[in-house]
Amino acid sequence: MLERLVNLQATDEKIVSYQKEEAKIPEELQGKEKSIEVLDKQKAEIEAEQEHFQNQVSELERQLDEARESARRFQTRLLVVKTQREYQAVQREGDSARKKKEDLESELKEIKVEKNTVGESLKEVQKIIAGEEAVLKEESKSSEAKLKSLRKERVDLEKTREVEAGLIEPGLLTRYQKVFNRYRGQGVVKVSGGVCYGCFMTVPPQLYNQVLAQGTVHQCPNCGRIIYVDES
């Protein structure tokens, strides 16, 4: 009966192992998806910044067109003024318009440089996102195949477990299952030299002698695991 328990535990441990693998696969994919979400957010922020610079460029270009038109008008007015005083006044206005035009041109140039820098950053992020999405697509395909294989093997093991569990006395099976669930494995452990290999505590000498006799099934008084002597 103990040998059957040991075999059942080996099967249960494999099933738990497959369950962990199955759970880990979608978690890894979710981690990759979250990474892409972070990049998408970064991309949206850069796009918003780029739009801000584009609006600035459009506004500066509009003001610059007005400044150029004003400069041309002042140039035309210089041809029709009649007095030196009027000429000087128009010339001062024209100089102010030209200065404004030059300032706008300088500011526009700086904004365009910043806009281009942001544009390069956007291209880089888009490239990274495309790469990450391609990797995710491949990993999803591979993970789906792996998950399918793991599930099949686990189902086969669960069928084997049903057979193995059917060979064990119901009361003993219940005791084993309770301990196995408690420790998520190792419901049955060997005892050697009077030491339980589940909790590594010494079992009472009298109990150890009873385990050696192999007459009945015993549990470690410290951890509650079912204990046996490994004769190999």
Notes on the structure:
With 232 residues, the protein is mainly α. It has 2 domains: 2-168, Helix Hairpins; 184-228, no CATH class. It contains 4 helices and 4 strands. It has helices spanning 2-78, 84-166, 170-183, 205-213, and strands spanning 188-192, 195-196, 218-219, 226-228. Strands 2-1-4-3 form a 4-stranded mixed sheet. A hairpin with a 2-residue loop joins β1 (188-192) and β2. α1 runs antiparallel to α2 (84-166).
Features:
mainly alpha; 2 domains; 4 helices; 4-stranded mixed beta sheet; Helix Hairpins; rod-shaped; 232 residues; 4 strands
CATH class category label of the largest domain: Mainly Alpha
Distance between the termini: 17 Å
Please name the CATH topology of the largest domain: Helix Hairpins
Report mean pLDDT, rounded to a whole number: 89
* Beta-strand percentage range: 5-15%
SSE pattern: HHHEEHEE
* Large-scale geometry: rod-shaped
Strand order of the largest sheet: 2-1-4-3
The residue ranges in which pLDDT falls below 50 over 5 or more consecutive positions are none
Q: Could you say which structural class the secondary elements and strand pairing correspond to?
A: mainly alpha
Assign the CATH architecture of the largest domain. Answer: Orthogonal Bundle
The total beta strand count reads: 4
The biggest beta sheet is recorded as: 4 strands, mixed
Annotation field: number of helices: 4
- The level of helicity is over 70%
Oligomer: single chain
Compute the CA-based radius of gyration: 40 Å
